[in-house]
User: Fold this.
Amino acid sequence: MTDLHRLSIREMAEGLKSAQFSSRELTQHYLDRIAKIDPRVNSYVTVTAELALAEANAADELLKSGTSGLMTGIPLAHKDIFCTQGIKSSAGSKMLDNFISPYDATVVAKAKAAGIVTLGKVNMDEFAMGSTSENSYYGATANPWNLDHVPGGSSGGSAAAVAADLAPIATGTDTGGSIRQPASFCGLTGLKPTYGRVSRFGMIAYASSLDQGGPLARSAEDCAYLMNVIAGHDEKDSTSIEKEADDYVANLNGTSVKGLRIGIPKQYFNVAGLNADVKARVEESLKKLEEMGAILVEIDLNMTEAYVPTYYLIAPAEASSNLSRFDGVRYGYRAENPVDLMDLYKRSRSEGFGAEVQRRILIGTYALSAGYYDAYYVKAQKVRRLIQQDFLKAFESVDVIAAPSAPTTAYKIGANLSPVEMYLGDIYTIAVNLAGLPAINAPVGFDQNQLPVGLQLIGNYWSESQLLSVVHQYQQATDWHNQRAAIAEENA
Ligand code: GLN
Assistant:
């Protein structure tokens, strides 16, 4: 079969169970596609072909014996921020280019236990800092819709791999939009779960109070399949919630769009820099939801202007602390011929980290320093609470909140935006992380250059089922999520 990559996860699972094809065939199909197509996309940092085929053989045994689970035998790509035992786990950094993890992240362990096949590890902005995936030691990844453009970031490799059909589904992480924005730029569905829903154990830390793992896929249905595998309490992550995870697949039709109250924040649609095509596509998608029975309600989110400054204090502050462990002593990159210990630290860190990571360590260290701690870090934490309260107030009158995922479509590779311009592009995603809320991106059309546009729906705490269900119903009534980039139409 030449078109196995066109199947949804549900269709793949059915095909595997009814022995229409084996996991080995399915896996080989993706490995062939990666070999032929990925040199132009650069989505993979590491392809684990041998391991994938061994895992596929094991999955085929389970399928034959009738003891398989929901996703047994389905291939997947992991963002290179998840630790994978025996496999390089680089976080996109020269600092970890030589790091072979001695253990699996919980997300990886859960995927393995579910019989999922690991195709490899995919590219990302260094330590998840960025919005283009250009901040990677392994070079930029291309957007499958137009190879001159970025796939977004930081989970750009995950998004590009799925959009080019080099993996049917991928894991990503979202600290300030890194699942939703690349999903938006690549025409995919991506879910950022509530903080604490998916274990952070073994996920290389960027900003621990904001980091959260989740799926990138073509549809809400596909995302639900992976959520069923990765969500849940983990005693190895003290911030993971003890609350039982939902059955996201069973709940796909659980929320009716009829009567659903969708909040439209006034402030969000007046943001300077909101691209006209993005605005138009998002508004059209909301009109469609209205036709399906949703009630659109204008709301106020008065803290909008505080989002970018608050995130860009808290995230770098936490990053400067988390990244202090990379000192050239215990593991990772070590500078050659140090003259003394201080020289070893200094050169290992300045040679091992890229420019954006160094910038954030500097910002964070400054904000946490004794003289400025109260003025910057403590103040940002207070504003963070106000941002959360703003959302909670809104959820008293609406069920979900709608927004663009990003003010623009995918930038050109090498566009070289200033750091501040780049940071302003995160306006629609970062508040969700500051508040710890779940949110989803769904593709809703294209701009005039045929680059995808995404709609973001933000839910109240633990409303992942509701978000997936609303997007699932939208996707039953529309066809945007089935559109494929030309490169995905190529056969291996
Ligand atoms: N673009 C944002 C940043 O650079 C978000 C990144 C993320 O979610 N990891 O911090």
User: Anything to note?
Assistant: The longest strand covers residues 439-446. The longest helix spans residues 374-394. Residues 128-131, 154, 174-178, 206, 315, 426 surround glutamine (CB under 6 Å).
